[in-house]
Amino acid sequence: MRRVDTQRRETAVVGVAAGLAATVAAGAAVGFGRPWFVFTAVRWLFARTPDVLVRFGITEIGGAAQPLFAVSVGVAAIWVLGAAVPLGEHVANRTGTGVATPMTVVATQTLLALLAGGTAPAAVAGGLAGGVVAVASTDVRGTGEDRRTALRALGTAGLAVGVSGLFARLSRDSAATETDEASGTDDTVTTADVENDNLERQLFEAAEGRSLDVPNLEGLVSRNFYQVDINAADPRTRREEWTLEIHGAVDGGGTLDFAGLLDNPTEYRFVSLRCVGEKLNGQKLDTALWTGVPVEALLSDVTLDEAVTHVAARADDGYVMDFPVEALDDAFLAFGMNGGPLPQGHGSPVRLLVPGHWGEINVKWITELEFLTEEIDGYWEKRGWHGTGPVHTVAKLHTVDTTGPSVVVGGHAYAGTRGLDRVEISTDGGDSWETATLSDPLPSRVPTDADPETLDLDDPADDAARMWRHEYVASESHEVVVRAVEADGTVQPRKNGEGDPYPSGATGWVSQTVEPNG
Ligand SMILES: Nc1nc2c(c(=O)[nH]1)N[C@H]1C(S)=C(S)[C@@H](COP(=O)(O)O)O[C@H]1N2
Ligand SMILES: [Mo]
Fold it and tell me: What Cα–Cα distance (Å) separates residue 139 from each residue in 47, 50, 109, 143, 144?
């Protein structure tokens, strides 16, 4: 009885170690990138997840939802792949051949990894790693020393993963050198000749100078920009591999590459993005300085058919968004963000920015602009969202500081391209209103070849959030309410308190009960 228990335990330990080795080694073999079967499985499962769950993940869990989902799938993968060990032992017992165990493990795990959508090298690396663990554990097994079995199994698992990762790294490096030699250039297309450090510095200084001093609140430029992705692993495309296809109901479309993009006028723009899925007082509203090319310039030789009403923007991650073609008039293709290249998570090498619209049509990793004569449903619209139109106005209440003698409240406010006239604040639940201090607008767009000496930074950006701040004395518990007034005098409607983001974005006044100090 005892022996059987020990055996079972050992099998379980070796199974987990082999499953772990296979899962992680397969990831290491592909640099934990998109071909890893954990990610392909995540993508497959995510595409089949009921919309209510996806919505719940986005609105309730937010940015952590994707990683959480991926980790759960990873843990499940370890268990499923680990089952190859008891299976192998069963085969070994039946056939009376010891090597049947590792052989079964290698075969089963490789097959499972392939079935989960992993690429062949990753699947084979995983299977072999699992097999190595099974082999290494055989001779300590049955000695009844589970601790030794466990140590041996996990040790080999670690070793197998290390070898796989090292091997992958070496082969990647040599592949990279080969392509560089073949193309006769050194690696990347640079944008150095269109960048203007002096100008960038002035723009950032202006942004810093105009940011209000509000405790625990990031300034006008977000260094910590929110991110929303439909996949757990983002596309990795190098600038020299990137192309944009312009096609559909047009004359003069074609395919543009990165060098072709840079042949157009380039400019800096401060632009904010807000996600339609964020809660009313959520954290998915951010602003950056982007570098890029106005879409208008790219379309100068393109004639749209009379009947064109919509455009579909498609991306490398399978994402597609459809919106009215007019929205493209003032749109922008960005390849730089906050003074550096566009980060991978924000759509490298090139993303679309559409002024005044919800984040979702600001397609990252863009590969296609297709002009259409009728509307199609984009990724989120298929899931019931209505986020292809203009963004709703919001004034956030992100700081309520009661640590000093007076109360300091503040936040960011955004009204898309409608612009803000003022932000109003009530400290009595909405009975009376005062005007809060509002930051000066960020500077308007500037060509990257503008002369830094004669730069005029007084024109306001037309699609960037501002900051507000208010300070007052209070001694009793009270309700703070904040609302935005748009440039044309339109007061933001009160709406329902919470403002459910689904399906067309949260709007309304943000309020909070404040308990002053003492
Ligand atoms: N290709 C692609 N583009 C995309 C997304 C995506 O998942 N894939 N997410 C969209 C959503 S819902 C938003 S709110 C913005 C967010 O941009 P960010 O991640 O750079 O903040 O990108 C949009 N563009
Ligand atoms: Mo979004």
Answer: 44, 47, 22, 8, 11
